[in-house]
Amino acid sequence: MRAQFVLSEIGVGLRRNLTMTFAVIVSVALSLALFGGALLMREQVSTMKDYWYDKVNVSIFLCNKTDAATAPKCAKGAVTGQQKEQIEADLKKMDIVESVHHESADEAFKHYKEQYSDTAIASVITPDQMQESFRVKLEDPEKYKVVATAFAGRDGVESVQDQRNILQNLFDLMNGMNIAALGVMGLMLVIALMLIVNTVRVSAFSRRRETGIMRLVGASSFYIQMPFIMEAAFAGLLGGAVACVLLLVGRYFLIDHGIALAEKMQLVNFIGWDAVFAKLPLVLAIGLLMPAVAAFVALRKYLKV
Fold first, then answer.
1. Which tens digits make up the pLDDT trace of 286-304?
2. Which pairs with CB-CB distance under 8 Å and at least 24 residues apart come from 18-22?
3. Which element (helix H / strand E) includes 61?
4. Suppose 258 and one of 141, 167, 174, 253 were both cysteines; which one would form an S-S bond, judging by CB atoms 3.0 to 4.6 Å apart?
């Protein structure tokens, strides 16, 4: 097969169907950008989970005088010094516990004032209304239920809370956005495939005289189909390249500059450039192979060779 002939046929096909080729490039670019964005979003959620789950604690809140009158679990009264010592000793005996920190009512009141000083209720809250607590750091945060089972319902314990639940709503929201992005990506992918098939069909129809002559002189099916397949692959590769640019620009403006989330949300451990660059070869490969396969399948129906 002469490479020069194939390349010339590709150029002819692209010029004849310039508008449809442009539509293929745009649709492939958008679908692959959404695909790459969904992959990066999933990695971001995983990174945040690893980062925050390693820092969250299990909190064991103790009964105070106010709870003794309002909370059924504290009906026996506020926690005593002996109960606190026993709880702390039992915690330190557990193999899954990495560290234990006792937060007094005064410390809890100080932290509350620092976080909610602008609210109206902050002016009427007093230290004796705050709960003492043990902040427990676990070797494996997934084993929270072991601590909950051992201490929930004990005398002097009002509740046992896993701080991961505070973050779970955020992760659920991000996962929902990821699923939505994948849904839109799937729709755009279907549109791109339909455009590719239609472009190949129009191109094959417009060159039916040339392909007929080639068939009569004994050209193989692969020889006749190759220009059409390479046209689709070239358009898809351009779309993949545009998608890569969109991912890079999105990472640059969303996190580093422009919106600059990295500066505004310094507590969030955002994915780095290495994660973005790692996804680009996959995006390019799909952009190249998907249109080529779609064109090959379409040619079996629309190009009788």
1. 888 888 888 887 777 655 5
2. 20/195, 20/198, 20/199, 20/202, 21/199, 21/231, 21/235
3. strand 58-62
4. 253
Q: How far apart are CA 305 and CA 294, in angstroms?
A: 17
pLDDT tens digits along 212-222: 666 666 666 66
Q: How many residues does the chain have?
A: 305
Joined together, the tokens standing for residue 278 give 């790692």
What is the secondary structure of 64-99 as a DSSP string?
-HHHHHH-GGGTT-SPPHHHHHHHHHHHHH-TTEEE
Least confident of 58-62, 81-85, 177-181, 237-241: 177-181
Contacts of 283 (CB under 8 A, 6+ apart): 32, 35, 36, 240, 243, 244, 247
Q: What is the pLDDT of residues 7-55, one digit of tens each?
A: 565 566 556 667 777 878 888 888 888 888 888 888 887 777 766 666 6
Q: Which amino acid would we find at residue 281?
A: P
